[in-house]
Amino acid sequence: MKIFKWGLLGLVGIALVFIALNWTSIQRLRTVNTLFDADKIVENFSSMDSAFLHHDLELGAAKPWPEDIQDIPETVMIAGKETNLAEALEELDTTALVIIRDGTLIHESYYKSTERDDLRISWSVAKSFMSGLYGQAIEDGLIDISQRIETYLPQLKGTAYEGATVANILNMASGVRFNEDYMDPKSDINDMGRVLGLGGSMDKYTETLLERQYEPGTVWQYVSIDTHVAAMALRKVTGKSLHQLWEETYGEHLGMGKNPFYLTDGKDVAFALGGLNLRTRDYAKFGQLFLQGGEWEGQQLIPADWVKDSTMNHAPNVHPIRGSGYGYQWWVPMPQEGPSKGDFFAVGIYGQYVYVNPAMNIVIAKNAADREFTQPQSNGQHSMNMNIDIFRSLAEQLYDEKIVCWTKMSNMERMNFNARNQHGELWGPRIEALTKDEKGLEDICRPWIDWLTEPAP
User: Fold this and answer.
1) Chain-centroid distance, C-alpha 288
2) CATH classification of 75-398 is 3.40.710.10, yes or no?
3) Which of 36, 242, 269, 457 is most buried (CB neighbours < 10 A)?
């Protein structure tokens, strides 16, 4: 009996030692499993650094937005129906809304006890940040996205990724079998989350994906791990971490006001597909950078050609429910028509958005904790469609018509024009001819929207 008693005490002791040594991992796993609970989700999304491994990012000097705070419309059009904006934002569990027009902050509001300086988890908005980092690597000849991924990552030979091009992967057309059902505890996306939560290696996890569902490039399907693979290739060819690339491209230049951070795996590798944490008003700066064709204060941070290419639809099929197209880690509302033609957006689960509307010169950043993001909303539409309707309606109502002369355009306006023209292709050769000889063009002045949507005179 004494032997049994001491044996039992020994086992308890071993168990306690195990728990003590692994307490941090156990706590992280517990947080992963309760992250989206109704009573915790809002607070969790503002405090991810308290539960996960993370890497703080360095910033240059802070440069606040110029501000001209104004009233915004009380109603918006959703699915052709006039809807109260406040009620729609509440239905979508909105936590923050920031609107930038002509490079100036005109609206900023926070909900559900969140505040301006909260660092909010981006989720898949981070994918678009990663995509932007590809531009310089392509221009420098370090990577060719038409090449197969194993050209840069030979360790993926024999996996489901073998044979997929980098472009296929950036476009979410890798063909890899991957269950993205967030509500299924046994799904691939949740398995991946546990790897992250327990401090495992995301790079090693990619090597375990062996099943292919489609031939690469033939079917678009949302596969978040594709973004990590794309980031692996970028890290390999540049010889830099994602942290370094992010700081050099965005952190040093955009004047963000509070140091953000990336969630990381146990190897300090950035969680590229969803781990970036920023203030909402700083998410808007990223959108403004893309609205300006990659230029910021006279410096080309992202090559304009990549801004154009990455924000155009390349998907072999539109989303089966939402009807949106997909570029290289950016979403594109489809069909591209009407006064907001040329718009594009980044989106994260639970309602994170960076919406860019070059035609209206407007950027909207939105955060939320929408636990029903996969369910139809009250108007019968999926929440993504509802959000895009809200953004387009706000942009079109807030558009400030102004007369602009071609030779008097600021660098920002010309970049905006170029970004829009890259989607609409309405000016084409005519505008190229105009830019070669600007003599006598002083009188070509018209409303800004006409420059973007009407043929040249």
Assistant:
1) 13
2) yes
3) 242
